[in-house]
Every structure is written in structure tokens, then in C-alpha cells.
Design a protein that fits this description.
- The protein is mainly alpha-helical.
- The chain has 2 domains: 263 residues, no CATH class; 209 residues, no CATH class.
- It contains 17 helices and 2 strands.
- It has a two-stranded antiparallel sheet with strand order 1-2.
- Helix 1 packs across helix 11, helix 2 runs antiparallel to helix 7 and helix 3 packs antiparallel against helix 9.
- The longest helix is centred in the last third of the chain and has 43 residues.
């Protein structure tokens, strides 16, 4: 996440009693907030649906439309998030934030245009109908903008502003949904409008937070400059995209299994499995938050000192001492994150499952089995993801690229293969893929740390390759020219 390490470091530099709790709060709000926000918004919608005594067919249609928009938007975000985060991090590191707002709006426009076009084609042939299709498309576009906005929010330290934006979204969704139901709107349409307007309010609130932090003019040449990073870091796009495929493919596989249900057209759901996934995915937030605060802050300090010794011409002994300190810090923090995730998973499987059984969610023995398997799978995935991201500190992009592809392929193949087996085995495809992902990422980390000097020095090219423009460089130039031609009176343009 772009800049969150820098922002948390600034908070911790204050060195007072509230600095570390504030750092954890900021990490939780920015990293876990969007997921929690989405789940609370969905819960608000389901609560309103229950009060309106919605019939089963309409409820399934509502769930399907929201779920498909959610997963499709996450997939699009997966291919773009790491690249945009890298672009923003480089800008933040070099203190070149002049075009921050331009990048925000340019990336929003580009992602909505590309993703919206593809999702529109899907909806046209989905058989869901015109009205439902329009609302589903708007929701999808808003979700893309929401996930992309999170990359930009991590650069700010206004976590209270972010928290207020989350609260406004929940409140707007609930109140508008209730208002439309009182007016006797059709339940599905009323609740879709509620969630659409709720996320619209979130995007407005986020934009206001960014404008308060970066009151700048929009420079035309900066609108789409981030696209050049898709040529430079195309493997990051593949890593992010394949990771999302691995996270989502097991859900899609179960939709088309014997326990899946056709809702309308090509829309399918598997209520028992989807709800288990929905709740079990929350258990990996422990690792996510701890990774951001511990590894992104504490470990980044010692790794920075290690690499700076190469620039300053440190002695061999100084380099060895810095290496030992860095690896000791890494082992200590990874062990801490692992134990915390294990404790969270055990609590979720024991106490959490007992609580869920008492809630009016319809948890039966089959769902309890899914929940246990998925909790373990998400725990292993979360740790594997942390290890993979840690290896990128040492320039392990090539191996992370291959590992992410293996993760996507194994989860997809195992999950679709197991839909022909007993339904009790659903979820094991994701579990097996996550185990393989963890083993490969841990092997890469061990291989790198066992001979760190070779990884840092000998694997680097002797001659720096000259960067050549690719497809996205040409697309950036073309879009910039068109933007200037269309908005030359309203946007400031600076020549190179």
C-alpha cells in the first residue's frame, strides 16, 4: 500500500505514549477498513432486506449482483494496485507529489473506462435485465474507484477523515435504503440504489480528504503518467492479478458446483459456501495489520541501514553486522506475525464458530466444516503473502511473479477439480493452493537470505539497460495529447 510505511513512520517519530496506538489505528483503518466497510454495508443491506420480508429469489438476486460486482472489481484492482502503489511510493520517496491529484483522477478514469467496458459486455450477455444491469454496472465502477482510492489514502495521515468517510457510507446506505423501502420501491432496486449511493458518498468523502491534503492544480501531463509504470513493472501487475485470481477462483468454482444455485441468467451463487468465505476472510486481517506496522516500519529501518552501507562504502564487517541485524529482525517479526495469526485462527474456529452458531445466519454442520477449512486456508495464504512481499525487499520480483502464477493455477485447478468430488471437500482447493504458495514463498525467502550478498550484488546487471517505451508509454502520450486538446482551457499543462 503506497506510502503507508512512510506515514506510520512519521507518526512513530513523535515518540509519545499515543504514537504506537495511533500507528496501529491508522494501519487498521486504511488496511482493514475497506473490507470491514464492505461487510458492514452488506450487512446493512441484508438487514433491510430481512425487515422488508424479501422473498428468497429476490434475496439471491440481490446477493448475486453485489457479489459479482465486488469480486470483479477486486480482480481489476489486483492487476493495477501494486503498480499504482509503486508509482505513488516512488513519488513520495522523491517528494515529487505535485501531480498527486492528477494521478488520482487519471487512474480513476482509466480503470473505470477499461473495467467498466469489460463488465458492461459481461452484463449485456448475463441475462439479468436492463435496470438491474445498469445498477450493477454503476456499483462495479464505484467499487473500482473505492479500491483504487485506498492506494491514495495511505499517503495521507488523516485517519479520522477516513474513518468518518466509512461511517458516512454506512449511514447513507442504511438511511436511503430504508427511505426507498418506505416509499414502496421494489426491494432489490431500492437496496441496490442504497448501496450505490452509499459508495458514491464514500468516493466524495475520500476526494475531499485528498483535496484537503493536496490542494493542487491538475497538471495534464501527470494525469496518465502512472501508465508508464505498467511497462516498467508489468510483473507487479501479474503478481497482483494472479493473487486475486487465486483468492477468487475457488469461490467461482463452487458457484458452478452441485451446491451452486442459478439466480438469473449466468448469475450463480452458493449461499452456504459464500457466507463461510465472507466471514473466514476476516481472520487474515491480523496478519495484514501486523505486517504493515511491524514489517513496513521496524524491518524497513534495518533494511534501509543495510543498503545505505553499500552507498556509503561501509566496511565488510559493518555490512555483516547490518546483515545479521536485519535478518534477526526479519525472523523475529515473521515469528511474531505467525503466532498472532495462529492464535486468531484458533479463536475463530473455537469461540468464533460457537458464536456464529447462535446467530441467525443458518450455520449448519456443512457450513461449519467449510468455515474451519477456510480459516486455515486464509491463515496460510496471509502468511504466504507476507513472506512473498518480504522477499520483494530484496528484489525478488521475478520469483514472486512465478510463485503468484503457480498460486493462481493450483487454486483454480484444484478447486474446479474438486467440484466433481464430495461437497465436503469444497474449500480444500484453496487450502492446497495456499500451502503450495507458502512453501514456494518460504523457499524463496530462505534462498535469498542464505546468500544475501550474492542477491544484492552479483544478481544485478553490469550494464544498466536503457528503458524503452512500450505500449503503455505510447498510450500515456496519446491520452495526454487528447486530454490537452479537450480540456486545454480548464487544465494546466506544462511542457517538458
Amino acid at each position: 500500500m503506497a506510502g503507508i510505511g512512510f506515514s506510520i513512520n512519521e507518526i512513530l517519530k513523535e515518540k509519545n505514549l499515543t504514537s504506537r496506538p495511533r500507528a496501529y489505528t491508522y494501519a487498521a483503518v486504511t488496511a482493514a477498513g475497506p473490507l470491514i466497510l464492505g461487510e458492514i454495508v452488506l450487512f446493512s443491506v441484508y438487514l433491510l432486506a430481512s425487515f422488508s420480508k424479501i422473498n428468497l429469489a429476490d434475496r439471491n438476486l440481490l446477493v448475486a449482483l453485489i457479489t459479482y460486482a465486488l469480486l470483479a472489481s477486486l480482480l481489476v484492482n489486483g492487476f493495477s494496485s501494486l503498480v499504482i502503489s509503486r508509482y505513488l511510493s516512488d513519488k513520495l520517496y522523491t517528494k515529487k507529489l505535485k501531480g498527486f491529484l492528477a494521478t488520482y483522477w487519471g487512474s480513476q478514469f482509466f480503470l473505470v473506462s477499461c473495467g467498466g467496458f469489460l463488465y458492461a459486455i459481461f452484463l449485456i450477455f448475463s441475462g439479468v435485465g436492463f435496470i438491474y444491469g445498469i445498477l450493477a454496472w454503476i456499483l462495479f465502477c464505484e467499487l473500482i474507484m473505492t479500491w483504487n482510492a485506498i492506494n491514495f489514502l495511505t499517503v495521507t495521515k488523516d485517519y479520522m477523515g477516513i474513518f468518518k468517510a466509512f461511517m458516512w457510507t454506512i449511514l447513507v446506505t442504511f438511511l436511503i435504503g430504508a427511505f426507498f423501502l418506505i416509499l414502496k420501491f421494489p426491494v432489490v432496486i431500492a437496496l441496490l440504489w442504497a448501496i450505490v449511493l452509499g459508495y458514491a458518498s464514500f468516493i466524495v468523502q475520500v476526494s475531499l480528504v485528498l483535496y484537503r491534503q493536496f490542494p493542487q492544480k491538475i497538471v495534464a501531463k501527470e494525469l496518465f503518467h502512472f501508465l508508464t509504470y505498467f511497462d516498467k513493472y508489468k510483473k507487479l501487475a501479474v503478481i497482483g492479478g494472479c493473487t486475486q485470481i487465486g483468492l477468487l477462483s475457488h469461490v467461482v468454482a463452487v458457484w458452478f458446483s452441485p451446491i451452486g444455485q442459478q439466480v438469473k441468467g449466468i448469475f450463480h451463487i452458493a449461499p452456504y459456501y459464500d457466507l463461510s468465505v465472507f466471514i473466514a476472510s476476516l481472520t487474515m486481517l491480523t496478519t495484514t495489520i501486523n505486517f504493515i506496522v511491524v514489517l513496513e516500519v521496524d524491518f524497513s529501518k534495518v533494511s534501509y541501514n543495510f543498503y545505505q552501507l553499500f552507498n556509503r562504502g561501509g566496511s565488510l564487517q559493518e555490512l555483516r553486522d547490518a546483515e545479521n541485524e536485519m535478518l534477526a529482525s526479519l525472523r523475529r517479526h515473521l515469528k511474531s506475525v505467525g503466532w498472532k495469526q495462529l492464535l486468531t485462527t484458533l479463536i475463530a474456529i473455537s469461540f468464533g464458530l460457537a458464536i456464529l452458531s447462535y446467530l441467525p445466519l443458518g450455520f449448519n454442520d456443512t457450513m461449519r466444516g467449510y468455515f474451519r477449512v477456510l480459516c486455515v486456508a486464509y491463515a496460510i495464504y496471509a502468511l504466504a503473502n507476507v513472506v512473498t512481499l518480504t522477499t520483494t525487499y530484496f528484489g525478488n520480483v521475478d520469483k514472486a511473479y512465478r510463485t503468484s502464477i503457480v498460486f493462481a493455477l493450483t487454486v483454480t485447478l484444484f478447486s474446479f477439480g474438486l467440484i466433481f468430488a464430495n461437497s465436503l471437500f469444497y474449500g480444500f482447493g484453496f487450502l492446497l493452493g495456499s500451502v503450495i504458495y507458502f512453501l514456494l514463498s518460504w523457499y524463496d525467502l530462505e534462498n535469498i537470505t542464505s546468500n544475501l550478498f550474492y542477491q544484492v550484488l552479483s544478481r544485478q546487471p553490469l550494464i544498466q539497460k536503457k528503458e524503452e517505451g512500450g505500449f503503455f508509454h505510447y498510450l500515456y502520450k496519446w491520452l495526454t495529447v487528447k486530454t490537452i486538446a479537450i480540456f486545454k482551457k480548464g487544465i494546466t499543462y506544462e511542457k517538458e
